[in-house]
Amino acid sequence: MLCMPKGLSFRTQADNRDPQLHSFIITREDGSRTYGFVLTFYEEVTSKQICTAMQTLYQMHNAEQYSSVCASSSCSMDSLASSIDDADATSLAKLQRYNSYDISRDTLYVSKCICLITPLPFMQACKKFLIQLYKAVTSQQPPPLPLESYIHNILYEVPLPPPGRSLKFYGVYEPIICQRPGPNELPLSDYPLREVFELLGLENLVQVFTCVLLEMQILLYSQDYQRLMTVAEGITTLLFPFQWQHVYVPILPASLLHFLDAPVPYLMGLQSKEGTDRSKLELPQEANLCFVDIDNHFIELPEEFPQFPNKLEFIQEISEVLLQFGIPPEGNLHCSDSATKLKNLVLSDLVNDKNGNIPSNALNMYELLKGNETIARLQALAKRTGVTMEKMTISTPLTEEKDGKLSCEELELRDYKLNVQLREVFANRFTQLFADYEAFVIQAAPDMESWLTNREQMQNFDKASFLSDQPEPYLPFLSHFIETQMFATFIDNKIMSQWEEKDPFLRVFDSRIEKIRLYNVRAPALRTSNYQKCSTLKEAAQSIEQRLMKIDHTAIHPHLLDMKIGQGKYEQGFFPKLQSDVLATGPTNNNRWASRSASTQRRKDRLRQHSEHIALDNDMREKYMQEARSLGKNLRQPKLSDLSPAVIAQTNWKFVEGLLKECRMKTKRMLVEKMGHEAVELGHGEANITGLEENTLIASLCDLLERIWSHGLQVKQGKSALWSHLLQYQEREEKQEHSAESPVGGGTERRKSDTGITLPTLRVSLIQDMRHVQNMSEIKTDVGRARAWIRLSLEKKLLSQHLKQLLSNQALAKKLYKRYAFLRCEEEREQFLYHLLSLNAVDYFCFTSVFTTIMIPYRSVIIPIKKLSNAITTSNPWMCVSGELGDSGVMQIPKNHLEMTFECQNLGKLTTVQIGHDNSGLLAKWLVDCVMVRNEITGHTYKFPCGRWLGKGVDDGSLERILIGELVSSTSDEELGKQCRTPPQQKSPTVTRRLSITSLTGRNTKPNAGQIQEGIGEAVNNIVKHFHKPEKERGSLTILLCGENGLVAALEQVFHHGFKSARIFHKNVFIWDFIEKAVAYFETSDQIGDNEEALLLQRSSCKTFCHYVNAINTAPRNIGKDGKFQILVCLGTRDHLLSQWIPLLAECPPITRMYEENALLRDRMTVNSLIRVLQTLQDFNIILEGSLIKGVDV
Question: Which positions fall inside the RUN domain (predicted)?
């Protein structure tokens, strides 16, 4: 199955019968790999029976083809020997010419292969040995010794070269050299990276490499098996020090195509048939798929994946290495017009030169590449890198055999050098990115046994601290990467290394980090995104050159064996039947590679146990292969849908169990991170979550849901399996709704109270949420729509409920999914929905914060205190809603209406509402209790408490107020309905702050001096803590300044303490009256200071204070006195002036007339303490929301 993935192949003398080399890989249970190298060639069929049967099959096939041509219908049957071009199949003559076999005229050949199995990827050495063996079979002269001698020699007498040494052994005709890197060098990799870069191109390769690092599903696609293997091995080699942990099948046999249904990350290779269009290739899932069409130099990338750090500089450094070896960075030169031009040039020189020698031609490389559509990019890249390519010498010596050998060795050495230099560049990137990783590894267990027992519950790596230490541009990639299985395994290996022998990859990586520290000492805090090039390229190339030039060991020569005479007789063109008894035994204890280190095996076993919930279990892979072998005799391919329920259960329970376990881990991580410090106190690990990390975890959840919905699909429709399911559900539901519609229905959605001032209940509807997403013109793809719908459902705390509703339609689930699919395993499905339900415990804004440019409908309701004022004002009211992302602008509220809807660009989390009116009409005065605003898409409802009058001659005379919002938490429709109704009066804002309505509601107990000072300290402390959080974690500064327990409220308490009377001659007196009296005093008097410097400072502070107060008074806004005081505090905080203004106010004469002697402002110690507390805000750059200070020009 691996040596001949397509099975036997027949050819005639008219077909191409060149030998083909390909390789394969077998991954064992302990994670170790075995490599196979296969040379496929064609041998003449000597059996007359087979030839006669083949002719009969051809005649039957041609008759069927002819009838289909006559009927003008296309035939889909594959040809047995060579395919017919449908476009040319227009006549029987052409048909017979392209697709015929005549036993009397044609010679029939059948494919045969020689395979060599090795423990390490010695590709070049194995390739040479197999080619020499093939030459021995096809040459006119028999080989010097029987073939058994050479095979016995390589099996039993050629040892593995020791690390850091080279070994020479002998093939049939020539010696062969192989080498092995030393213990501190990069691990062995013999696959030529030159081919990988030529096949994909540099930029494509870096993108695919990033997808592999982020553990997406990677599907390689090519007609050539060796290309699949070369690209797969090349990319996984570049991952050092990390290792791919998931399904790895570089060549997927036809009988195992159902592996593509695996809902796990994979790296697989699929052979393409000639002429097959990519669009006809049906894949189970494409939402998270990176599709690599190797032959056509084309890749399809998943949506929304982050770029590799310093990608441009990284590409530039690699291109410099490639250009040194004459490889254009865009790759694929051999397929371009310029390559044809180059080939023709070489051929014309060959014709002109009678001796067959081509002279070295100094060619202008850019001249050769003229007409190539990517040349502009290449030139720009070369210019940036500083590489000059004015002239490039291209020499292709087709000389005599000796020179040819030399040339071949030189090319091989160049490939080895290029390989190691490219790998050094990639390894250097990881060394720079993770130079300080050890500082963040958490060694939580005292011994290995306890660590293994509690592995899943333990935090092994301080992710939050690690990310906070990284440069900002690296975060999108790193936050995704540290969540991967390959990174988790790397950290596990690090922890295990304190009890066991170090993993070889880890040992080399750690030694490189040590080297960096010796050469350039830098503190972890000084992380920058400056790109540092690799400095070990020459050194790496020299070490490999020295090994190949100076041979360290030579193996025993092949020799005659004790064989039976007459067997294995040489016959040109036919591989002889080997004497198995001679090859069955060899010298004892020489199979060195079979015995592996016990500690390494133990470690790999344990790590496999902990990662099998993500990786495809090797036992299961073996079962698939056994199954394929046993069913291979049947004509049709084995598919899971054809098997018995028992076999399906056996082969799929690992997938189902793995998906469920992954869901449990992901939801737990999201909950723990979001809950923050509470979770830490409960013993759940890390302290906080960044906005970026939260986004990464949610993207990871989206990916998991796509994989679950892709598992066991009957027929794939569209790139997103989840969205396809949703669309079909929507179609069915809308048909039922349409048929069930009646004239009576329709008005049940809105539920209003008798007074008509309640927010109507927002109906919970899966279909409605889908329509919201479908109306978003910014999203163009099904994958994008599915992710938006998941984010919206998660933000609304309806994800589990919606998915349960979706899966409740069992008829649809049976139609879409095979019986072994995850979504049809009832018990696991219920557990999965339960895990998702746990996410309702925390608030997410993952939809609002990501889709910032969409238009969103909002609904607002103004709730007045009807017992004390009119429900509706006769004036013209207006409102402006502001959020973290912008504001709605001033909107007129329709007369005699308390409710309105409006649509505007996403405002983000709502922060303030400005409400006011023009004071016209007889009943202009208005006592507003609160304003409710709801986002009609996400359902988030905000309450903006007021509890104040709007109108001239009442309260503080304000016609306009700025209200600060708070999110109303709602867990059900009923609760939401309750919370939206008019709240009881005791829930109105704090009475001590609302002096104007004390006569209406009765005085509460006034806070004492100690409580007021504590309130000030707490308000300032909250602002300090706000600025010490990472920027993306900060909440709303507006609430900390103007909210219920904010700085403005705390300072109001200070200014109210000891205020002589709130009413003088039946007229309300406010703090602002005291402020204005102080300004009048400052403007008319000359201050007397202790010294000149203090006097100047005091005059300057007085002048600034007067300027700010006058600017607020003259602003074109109808703000009341309390509102003006709020603006003054906000501006003073922003410009760091509060600590200068407080002593001025405490010492001005009006204070003695307006405040009692025991007032806080008249106590020197209290004032000094207040000044010190306010000075702690000096260090912060405070930016005020525009709605707070609109129209005030200072």
Answer: 692-852, 1038-1187
